[in-house]
TrEMBL record:
<dbReference type="InterPro" id="IPR013852">
    <property type="entry name" value="Transl_elong_P/YeiP_CS"/>
</dbReference>
<comment type="similarity">
    <text>Belongs to the elongation factor P family.</text>
</comment>
<dbReference type="InterPro" id="IPR001059">
    <property type="entry name" value="Transl_elong_P/YeiP_cen"/>
</dbReference>
<dbReference type="Pfam" id="PF01132">
    <property type="entry name" value="EFP"/>
</dbReference>
<dbReference type="Pfam" id="PF09285">
    <property type="entry name" value="Elong-fact-P_C"/>
</dbReference>
<dbReference type="GO" id="GO:0003746">
    <property type="term" value="F:translation elongation factor activity"/>
</dbReference>
<keyword id="KW-0648">Protein biosynthesis</keyword>
<comment type="pathway">
    <text>Protein biosynthesis; polypeptide chain elongation.</text>
</comment>
<dbReference type="InterPro" id="IPR015365">
    <property type="entry name" value="Elong-fact-P_C"/>
</dbReference>
<keyword id="KW-0963">Cytoplasm</keyword>
<comment type="function">
    <text>Involved in peptide bond synthesis. Stimulates efficient translation and peptide-bond synthesis on native or reconstituted 70S ribosomes in vitro. Probably functions indirectly by altering the affinity of the ribosome for aminoacyl-tRNA, thus increasing their reactivity as acceptors for peptidyl transferase.</text>
</comment>
<dbReference type="InterPro" id="IPR014722">
    <property type="entry name" value="Rib_uL2_dom2"/>
</dbReference>
<dbReference type="InterPro" id="IPR013185">
    <property type="entry name" value="Transl_elong_KOW-like"/>
</dbReference>
<keyword id="KW-0251">Elongation factor</keyword>
<protein>
    <recommendedName>
        <fullName>Elongation factor P</fullName>
    </recommendedName>
</protein>
<dbReference type="InterPro" id="IPR008991">
    <property type="entry name" value="Translation_prot_SH3-like_sf"/>
</dbReference>
<dbReference type="InterPro" id="IPR011768">
    <property type="entry name" value="Transl_elongation_fac_P"/>
</dbReference>
Amino acid sequence: MAALIDAIDIKRKMAFEFEGTPFTCLDVEVSTPTARGGQTLVRVKMRNLLTRAVFDKTFKAGEKFKEPDLDMVEASYLYSDADGSYFLDQSSFETINLPKEMLGDALLFLLEGAMIQVEKFNGNPIGIVLPQQVELTVSYTEPGVRGDTASGAVTKPAKLETGLEIRVPFFVKEGETVKVYTETREFAGRV
């Protein structure tokens, strides 16, 4: 039997099941009343792992939630077409198909063969977890001109091989491979 989690014990990035749906906690705030007999309330900013919707909900401290049956599977990105994107499970060698709406803009960080984690709920894939950084090649950027730093413009726009657009330092040239943080879409360095 799955363990039960008290609302008061919910922490950031913790997963829990509410009304049969898996959620992850983005932020939590506990309010303890000053009056006698008042109930402690837990306000949770949570993300629905199936729809990716984010909302706030307030629970009583003693409410209990099931631990969701979440599983992470290592997979490699194969390709995308009109029906969705395809990944190869590295342990069972099964092909996993995810529709585009389940991935959002994650495809901007994926090249063929890229290793990612596929998140499953009750054995069914519900999304992917990208690595913290990815390496992509700059397909287009304006050449950096000596003296650009004097105006305070130390970055310039660059388009990467997947179509992702980020800001890079002025010394980065077309054809170079750069590291990009997947969460913030920021330049992390050159390779």
